[in-house]
Amino acid sequence: MEFYEHLQKEYDTNTIKKLQEEENKQRTYCVILNVNKYNENIIKDKIIEKHPFVKNGYYIDKNIGYDYLFSNGVYYYQDAGSMMAAYFLNPDENDIILDMCAAPGGKTIDIALKLKNKGLIISNDVNYSRAKTLSNNIENLGFANVFVTCNDLDKIKNFYKYTFDKIILDAPCSGSFMFRKNEEAAKDWNIEKVKKYAIEQEKLLEIADILLKEDGILYYSTCSLSKEENEYQIQNFLKNHAGEYELIELNNENKFYDGINNTGIYMMPFMYKCEGQYICILKKVCKTPLFFAKNSYFNKNNLLKNIDLKFKYETDDGVYLFNNHLNMKYFNTLRYGLKVYDIYNKKITPSLSLARYLDNLNSINLDENQFLKYIKGEILTFSNDIKIKEGFNIVSYNGINLGFVKVKNNIAKNLYPKKLRI
Question: In sequence order, what are the residues at sequence separation of 6 or more whose Cβ sits closer than 8 angstroms to the Cβ of residue 52?
Answer without folding.
Answer: 253, 255
